[in-house]
Amino acid sequence: MGNQIAQLAAQSGHEVSMRDVEDRFVQNGLSAIKGRVQKFLVDKGKISQEEAYGILGRVKGTTDLKQATDGAQLVIECVPEDMALKQQIFRELDESCAPETILASNTSSLSITAIGSLTQRQDKVVGMHFFNPVAVMKLIEIIRGAKTSDETIQVIKDLAAKFGKETIMVNKDSAGFVVVRLFAALGNEAVRLLDEGVASAEDIDKGCQLGLGHAMGPLKTHDITNGIPVTLHVLEYMREQLGDAYRPSPLWRQKVWCGELGVSTSKGFYDYSQQ
Fold first, then answer.
1. How far apart are CA 188 and CA 108, in angstroms?
2. pLDDT at res. 275
3. Ramachandran region of residue 230, left (φ > 0), alpha (ψ -120 to 50) or beta?
4. What is the largest CA-CA distance in the chain?
5. What is the mean pLDDT of residues 4-18?
6. 97: enclosing H helix or E strand
7. What is the pLDDT of residue 274?
8. Which of 35, 85, 180, 267 has a Cα at 20 to 30 A from 202?
């Protein structure tokens, strides 16, 4: 999601430095931004080609952390959901960034307090959870760590508004926050229903759509986003932090073991091999 967030910031008029560990990842991110700007903005007549060049010109790519953070007022971390990796990144950012720089994590479920625990600026560590796809989804969750200051929270609220997003405040740093905690619980129950043979995947999803007003059922959503292994990881973390109520259904692990991860593998909770 990092390049999507970089694009959003650039469209809002900000200068952005996008950093990754290898140049091929950086170039892939820059290419993705260029492709989306052309396809969804220029080709649809929403902006001119000149305006597109302006957006693209505000995004720079690098593998050098010091270069990326030089002069940065805010850093948004978008690495995989691994606590040790995030803590390492935040320790490096703490050493690299100016003292006033805010460090935000796009984590969907991990403790903000723990992520920032190795920094010397815990008052400037905050959760800023975007939703995929960033350009379409209107919500940003703002998560307060144990020592996050009111000033830091206000900066993130103001920035989210400039991005054209709505926000909700997570005032207690709890595993899964609000949206992922709700979605993981719903998804886990849907998978239990499927595993127990209570109903088909189609009817479970249809029930959520027509009975609960959801745009798409949880099983289809996981397939399309290839989110099966991600939710399994989240449920295991939430079980560790919050108790057995979040114990994942065995079918999650079975799907991962079988390599049935969703659309990308032609099979998840649905079969896409004939499409």
1. 16
2. 79
3. alpha
4. 56
5. 98
6. none
7. 87
8. 180
Here the tokens at position 201 are: 């995947």
Query: pLDDT tens digits, residue range 30-46?
Result: 999 999 999 999 999 99
Residues 6+ apart with CB under 8 A from 211: none
Distance, in Å, from the CA atom of 82 to the CA atom of 60, rounded to the nearest integer, reads 26
CATH of domain 179-265: 1.10.1040.10
Quick one: pLDDT at residue 24?
97
Q: Where do you find CATH 1.10.1040.10 in the chain? A: 179-265
> Taking all residues of the chain, what is their mean pLDDT, rounded to a whole number?
97
Per-residue pLDDT tens for 53-108?
Answer: 999 999 999 999 999 999 999 999 999 999 999 999 999 999 999 999 999 999 99
Q: How many CB atoms lie within 10 A of CB 81?
A: 15
Domain with CATH 3.40.50.720 in the chain: 70-173
Phi-psi region of 9 (alpha: psi -120 to 50; beta: other; left: phi over 0): alpha
Distance CA 204, CA 201 (A): 5
Q: b/e string for 29-68 if b means 16 or more Cβ within 10 A?
A: bbeebbeebeeebbeeeeeeeeebeebeebbbbbeebeeb
pLDDT over 90 at 184, yes or no:
yes
Distance (Å, rounded) from C-alpha 121 to C-alpha 143? Answer: 16
3-state secondary structure of 47: coil
* Pair 19, 64: CB distance under 8 Å: yes
Whether 153 contacts 160, CB under 8 Å: no
User: Whole-angstrom Cα distance, residue 259 to residue 206?
Assistant: 25
Q: What is the CATH number of domain 70-173?
A: 3.40.50.720
